[in-house]
């Protein structure tokens, strides 16, 4: 970007990167800025790029403001807020030519770091906070709010909205509210007195987000589980999925707890919880708890990440073969092994599609953002119970842990849970005999009974070879009859999982396929490609097994690109394996370093691969 | 593990329990275990215990892992729902089933491989959570289905059929249970139905996880000279100083507390366990006393059997979780879903 374009006025279209040290309280200042822009009605995103550490390591936060709603990761930064001396060199190098660097001028910046194509905005944050605050911890924390104040001035963020947000955050702590307001004012005033505010790129109010909310995917998924009527959860703490259960626990305490007053004034009230959440000893137990509860007819789920799925593999096969519903929320992180626990990836696709030994196939859902995480979480329970099988909702760290601007969630009061084919005592009353795996319906699903139901419905569920009557077998034909039905049952689910989103453009010469959280970056990339004369159709896969439209899309294009966040092109492989389209007809576009995808990565890769 | 349906031949009128059911109504399929297997005697004791308790068969849920022991739930109470799960995972699955539906009587059958090796973590944590269930370890010191490898309960010096004597310290499920905060611990011997039946009945009445370690000789792989889990070894080394009777709630209880050292423990449901011929220094409600008693006898090469420890005062998983008395699985989704208005309202926090 040249200096000229950088100095031209740009409203609601820029990005800011904030470089901090983790554990110093910067996160709340950064999300304060992002939330204020959201409340001004402007499409915005905040991506937290944080280390697997509690205190002392570099951490970044990126805010992208985009009036057309393209809020995927930017990769070019108009303003760098350089608050971490350890990473000054890299951070200053990252800023666009013609951009700005805000730094703490309490100490001089090393001459070698200076760039003459960038404007340096020094704010003596440490000095200000030492002068204005007494407690050592406060002096550190308030530096964050002070730089936030300077940014509020530089970007033209509505001061009243910021003040309101601080009041809301510290509604119960007047002293903290005052400290924060004071620190904010220090930064604001300093910027106004020393710099031309606002900068050429800045915000102006819009109404684009008035029907939207700001929510992270883990919270949204937990809400989905609450609304789906899940009562039993088994889980084991793991980044980045822990907040799913933290939020489910909080939501249950609010919406599922009844307080029953005591019989007399002396009698204390008692609580009645319509849920039971078990923090298990490991992920094996977590999925075991889900299977036990689902076998018993409760809606039950677990939330985990890749390492947890690895541990659950054995019991996932048991659930598949014995046909027990199970909902597994996988908030994917970077693998293999421990990998990078605080970085994002979409590398559990094949792991989940074929989890466990033997011939297994599972139902997968790929939400693109928190709103779909809510919606698909509910769908997961319906699918799991309808098809009596494990269902995986594959989120990722970016969706799960970052705040997203999404349309307000809605709930259809006419929702009727699909509990699947379950025979209760009244159904069993007229039956002479019940056979667990016989009499399949059009979806190749057979009726089940629940423990506690009449003796006619009692059977012995077993992970060992069984025939359609549920009896142990080592007979080749009797065994195959059951596993062949399971394959057909899985295929039937293609009509039930969310359909792929296909968007066609006139004159398209290529097709671009993607999934999950890549959606925004890929849509933006398709716009950018069109500007370069490359017209592409778009398809976002939302579920597995694949609808016929997936195969058709690949076959309709002489060349397709599959954009995903893993090294091996797992979605591309899965499409080829399952639809039998030749793998060569699809070209992989991959980004798997652990950060959210940017449109530039997609554009650059496709242009290169097209040989343009 | 094949199952062979047992022919239901009408015999001379059999006695009926309170539900009008005979002992045959509590049986299951024909056992396919080796002739003389200790596990079959345990199965018979379970059949008797449930029949005598008049437990409605369909209110029983029987679970197991993998191994010879885990085959046995098919051999009892055919009218109960059963779950033959994966190796070592029964405790976790039972925890989930109980979490969803606390109204059933859960019985888990496991072995020493299943519970003391691959599944020891799940057992330990099911104990900690006090999942209300009867948990039977059919303990024979070997892996039968894979032909005779020593298990974690094999005593030092115990000799397998092939290979060297065991040199690694054994895990005693009773001592493990004491350390994990178990609320009901018993040890018995498959050859002693008279002792095992009242223990099983008390276990069903117990408000929490009732762990019963049943020494159950493996006639094929561990009943030879040199084994410490053989019929002969047990007959020679068993110490039955703790003798218990179970008095169900329905029977008239003439509970005069005797003065001869006998102790009476009231169970949660109102039934009682009466300890007879208990050594004077033994208190089945005192963890430390029980542990030192067991260890003391162990050091003399003796195996103490009987209902060894009971604590009826601890809360179950459900009591700790303040759940309703009826199963969570009964609550319809429509009642659990907060609805559209609540969703609108709560999203104010996301602005």
Q: Mind explaining what this structure looks like?
A:
- The complex is a heterodimer of chains A (612) and B (351).
- Chain A has 612 residues and is an alpha/beta fold.
- Chain A folds into four domains: 3-202, Pyruvate-ferredoxin Oxidoreductase, domain 3, CATH 3.40.920; 215-407, Rossmann fold; 422-495, no CATH class; 501-610, Rossmann fold (3-Layer(aba) Sandwich), CATH 3.40.50.920.
- Chain A contains 20 helices and 27 strands.
- In chain A, the strands form seven sheets. Chain A has a seven-stranded mixed beta sheet, sandwiched between helices. Chain A has a six-stranded mixed beta sheet with strand order 3-4-2-5-6-7.
- In chain A, α8 packs across α9, α8 packs parallel to α13 and α17 (519-531) crosses α20.
- The longest helix of chain A has 21 residues, at 174-194.
- With 351 residues, chain B is of the alpha/beta class.
- Chain B has one domain: Rossmann fold.
- Chain B has twelve helices and 14 strands.
- In chain B, β1 (60-64), α2 (68-71) and β2 form a beta-alpha-beta unit.
- The termini of chain B are far apart.
- The chains are: A alpha/beta (612), B alpha/beta (351).
